[in-house]
Design goal:
alpha/beta; Rossmann fold; 4-stranded antiparallel sheet; globular; binds adenosine-5'-diphosphate; binds magnesium ion; ATP hydrolysis activity; AAA+_ATPase; P-loop_NTPase
């Protein structure tokens, strides 16, 4: 189990002094689904990017902590007491990802000759390697030396120690794609080549299924989806939670996706703060009454 904790988070644009986040408090545990809603420009995407470590933003106050429990690590890694709580603001984006934070990546529009399968396997192995480095025993032996003289083709030979090899990855991928009800052919396609908007969103969910994060931040994954695709993507998100215990921070402007991905908690962001939190009924009230109602309720004026 893991818990992501934002407290009194303030952030501004790195180049300039425009304040965007003005004291965000939020906790997401693995296994929970949180909806983060709010009008355009309220700071939802900035919250996501600050969690991931986007360089465009500077955190001026507050904390982003990740608390980890033993189960998080399987049998390979024994964690020390001082490795249970991580201050994400001290870590690089890839280190945050290795600790179990997922933000749908912005990868290049298209890379010639790279299939989805290879892209996903590379991403998984990068995470495994980074994780090993983060939890490396200080007195551990140098693994690189053992590898000497065993160079092999990346497509055929055995994987490096700790890495997921081609055959093993095929099995993982097949299992995850079945879980998400995705067409097998998808994995053979070249990265993003001719992907529809809906396929890109499904791909984002597949990435999260492969990487098995503790907390996945999904920013407007519902935008531009027709109803069938919305249902597919939603089932995939539910499977992340049900099958691998991923906590979900679902950022959305609209209530619609919450009919399919039922949140445990709903938060409304206004002007860089969480102005109101509640259960699913809060999202329904927003659907009926819009965001001005929250503004009136909180500030006494629209
Ligand atoms: P939301 O996702 O809720 O629509 P954002 O987090 O994208 O809101 O943006 C919040 C506010 O911060 C907006 O007024 C936006 O224009 C501003 N903003 C966000 N990122 C930047 C940036 N990199 N440079 C300048 N202003 C930004
Ligand atoms: Mg946004
Ligand atoms: Mg150790």
């Amino acid at each position: 189990m893991a818990r992501l904790e934002l407290s009194n988070l303030h952030a501004e644009v790195a180049e300039g002094d425009e304040k965007i986040l003005e004291g965000v408090d939020l906790e997401v545990e693995s296994g929970e689904i949180h909806a983060l809603m709010g009008p355009n420009g309220s700071g939802k995407s900035t919250t996501a990017k600050v969690i991931a470590g986007h360089p465009a933003y500077e955190v001026t106050e507050g904390e982003v902590l990740l608390h980890l429990e033993d189960e998080e690590f399987g049998e390979d890694i024994e964690i020390d007491e001082d490795q249970r709580t991580w201050n994400l603001l001290d870590l690089e984006p890839n280190e945050r990802a290795a600790l179990g934070i997922f933000l749908g990546f912005q990868y290049p529009a298209e890379i010639e000759g790279v299939t989805m399968t290879n892209f996903l396997r590379t991403a998984l192995n990068a995470k495994i390697e980074e994780r090993e480095e983060l939890f490396e025993d200080e007195d551990g032996e140098d693994e690189d030396e053992e590898d000497e003289g065993f160079e092999s083709s990346p497509m055929e030979g055995p994987a490096d120690e700790g890495e997921v090899g081609v055959a093993e990855f095929q099995q993982i991928l097949q299992e995850k794609m079945e879980q998400l009800d995705m067409d097998e052919k998808f994995a053979q396609r070249y990265l993003n080549a001719g992907f529809s908007g809906g396929e890109k969103k499904q791909n984002e969910v597949l990435q999260a299924a492969i990487l098995e994060p503790s907390v996945a931040v999904l920013d407007e994954i519902d935008s531009g989806l027709d109803i069938d695709r919305l249902q597919d993507v939603s089932e995939g998100i539910n499977a992340l939670r049900d099958e691998q215990g991923t906590g979900i921070l679902q950022i959305t402007h609209y209530q619609r996706i919450l009919d399919y991905v039922e949140p445990d908690h709903v938060h409304v962001m206004l002007d860089g703060q969480i102005a109101k939190s509640g259960g699913p009924e809060l999202a329904e009230k927003l659907e009926d009454k819009g965001y001005d109602w929250v503004r009136e309720d909180v500030y006494g004026t629209a």
